Amino acid sequence: MSQKPILEVQNLCKSFSGIRVLDNITFNLEKGEVHALMGENGAGKSTFMKILMGLLTPDSGEIILDGERIECSNVHEMLKKGISMIHQEILMVPELTVAQNIFLGKELHRFSWLDENTIYKKTRELLKTLNVNIDAKAKMKHLSIADKQMVEIAKAISNNAKIIIMDEPTSALSDKEVSTLFNIIKDLKNKGVAIIYISHKMDEIYQISDRITVLRDGQYIATKAASNLPIKDLISMMVGREIEDIFPETEHQTGKTIIKVENLSQKGKFENINFEVKSGEVLGIAGLVGAGRTEVARAIAGLDEFEEGEILIADEKVKVQSPKNAMKLGIGYVSEDRKALGFIPHLSVKQNISLSSLPSLSNKWFISDEKESALANSMKNNLKIKASGINQKLMYLSGGNQQKVVIAKVLASSPQIIILDEPTRGIDIGAKFEIYKLINELKSKGLAIILISSELPEIFGMSDRILVLSKGKQTALLTKHEATQEKVMQYAVH
Amino acid sequence: MQYIKNLRQYGILIAFVAICLTLSYISPQFLTVSNWSIIFTQVSINALLAFGVTFVIITGGIDLSIGSVVAVSGVVAALLARNDNYPVIVPILGGLSVGLLFGALNGFLITKSKIAPFIVTLGIMTIGRGLALIISKGRPISNLSESFNFIGGGDIAGIPFPIIILFIVFIICSIVLKKTIFGRYVYAVGGNEQASWASGISVNQVKIAVYSLCGLLAGLAGILLTSRITTGQPNAGASFELDAIAAAVIGGSSTSGGVGSIQGTLFGVILIGVLNNGLDLLNVSSYYQQVVMGVIIIGAVLLDSWNQKIKD
């Protein structure tokens, strides 16, 4: 790697209304390397990436791309210069086809007529070089998230990207899809494309990246070769302190069965699901993406209907027909899709926390500001929600804090059963640790907890028993002591 | 202060003050009590409509039917108020029920059929206009009772009755939106419908209630208008919905939902009223007035989005 770096960033600074978000950032990127950018939420990663994308203008500092100094720029210019980004949230037009999306903004035409044939031909060639099996004529909205992501990558390549920024690209991918993605990344590396890789998943970082740069509180901390940086050191560089044990052990006793699910079935989604969760117990649900984990959770929480089976709470058959209904029965659900189903961006921390329990915070029709603020303040302190105050709007909070607010909202409705669907997706390691501690606290208070996660270490670290689903079927129900990583994976691909 | 903050748009406020100062400089009539009394009486109908449509817009919806509902409820109220046939409460309840009914119908169609509010209320707008013409046989209805005509033409202690109605409705609507569970749900549904539903809110009930409230206020506006012009006019209220929506938007409501306030809307209503009044005083032709109004609507939203950008 002795050649000149493709991207050099020196002394980059950026402030928002007087607050330094980036302070003297130094960064360099070699051709054909995968460079991980690590840091907690709020460390400045996304501001930095927005500057590279041309979405923001830095206050000072230099960006040298391929030997050429880049002045104040815009998105189109950066795209032309070869910087593309694969977004966490996919930005595609759902009603257009794969090929139309890839060529969006650079449609081929003969005179004024769109040259659709060539677009489809070129797209097929492109997808072939990526070794992915996606129909160029399929509408974007019919694709799985994994396939959508592959299309994003194909689009970046079609832009002749020299640098591809990947922001949490695997957050919605199954293990198999992740390995396909990693193969594509290796191919890109060989072609000399440089990749900036952002992820909160440690195992992936070590699997794929050559070097790691850590940012903390807007400052550059260090750049190290991944092979020379033990995970413990990396974490303490990110959080600025040492974290002893990621999964805190607690002594606890389980009590009576709180919820029992019998023969739960819904055509095309899941069939014959059976389990029970006791007071003070965490049941982990493992499985690949598409195994039906979220579907089962949604059915129990009243978001979807199911055709057959029973749900029993405290040995009594109950009917859950709507989320409202489920909450009355004491079932709280924290969705995997925080943005779509979790919070109201325009409402404040206080207003979001109280949303599901307003009748109990009101005198007749009128909301009691006193009761509402008291609830919000106590939740803010207990869950360590970082916000300027309980009146800050949720749209201005980081992902981890938004998630804590969503959990606070569910807890405020005093559930006996809480379903946590990917509770730590896309949030930083400090906030993750706090959510794990919170789960243990809820356990000791006697709640029955259902934890769905794609991260096996999380499932293993937190659960008392593990239910494994595969293609909508229940393939195993293991105790903590029986379960091993290999066993769970075997049952998951069953 | 909170009130001004809620408007989120100092720019438009400054523009408003500047317009008032200029007008009072040019026309000595402008800053008189009697002129402001005229302005508030003139805007009272638009205010009632705009308050209702503000609720709808905050949920992320739209109601184009209110202008026609003004006509139908006005015609029905006029029929009941003719020749002292019934006590005055009968035409009032009649007009309000018609408004409520139309609003509830909008709400039901929107929630049950999942057709976009724009389309449903467009359809109801046409139906309402047709019904107003059918009921009145296309002719104005006059000879209304004296007590009915008091609603739009009378005064209490020198304050015109429409202004009293305006402020009572203003206070009720502000309290409902800011202080009650229902009001909070209105913001929640507009901010994120799916998340509201998953949080245990009966989204459909909230929507039906909001359109019903909007219809009810349109019914009240219909009564007020009919009483003011002392005639039930089947052609009345045409394009009133656009003024109401304009007032809400100038007042900071976002048509994508989740944002807005009754105070802001009142400000929008007054701004439109002052502008029309001032341009009248200056003898500016109504053709130009329309052009100015359009510029103000777009300008207000532009200023608003600039403000948002600076904030982010």
From TrEMBL, chain A:
SUPFAM superfamilies: P-loop containing nucleoside triphosphate hydrolases (SSF52540)
GO MF annotation: an example: ATP hydrolysis activity
Subcellular location, record wording: Cell membrane
Record's keyword annotation contains Repeat: yes
UniProt entry keywords in alphabetical sequence: ATP-binding, Cell membrane, Membrane, Nucleotide-binding, Repeat, Sugar transport, Translocase, Transport
Keyword Nucleus among UniProt keywords: no
A GO cellular component entry from the record: plasma membrane
Superkingdom: Bacteria
Bilayer topology: Peripheral membrane protein
Pfam family, one: ABC_tran
InterPro entries for the chain: AAA+_ATPase (IPR003593), ABC_carbohydrate_import_ATPase (IPR050107), ABC_transporter-like_ATP-bd (IPR003439), ABC_transporter-like_CS (IPR017871), P-loop_NTPase (IPR027417)
Main location: membrane
Domain ABC transporter, first and last residues per copy: 7-242, 253-492
Protein name in the entry: Sugar ABC transporter ATP-binding protein
The organism's taxonomic lineage, starting at the top: Bacteria, Pseudomonadati, Bacteroidota, Cytophagia, Cytophagales
TrEMBL record, chain B:
Domain of life: Bacteria
Protein name per the record: ABC transporter permease
GO cellular component term, pick one: plasma membrane
Keywords: Cell inner membrane, Cell membrane, Membrane, Transmembrane, Transmembrane helix, Transport
Membrane topology: Multi-pass membrane protein
Cross-referenced InterPro entries: ABC_transp_permease
Pfam family, one: BPD_transp_2
Example GO molecular function: transmembrane transporter activity
Membrane spanning stretches: 12-31, 37-57, 64-82, 88-108, 115-136, 156-177, 208-225, 287-306
Compartment list: Cell membrane
Species this protein is from: Emticicia agri
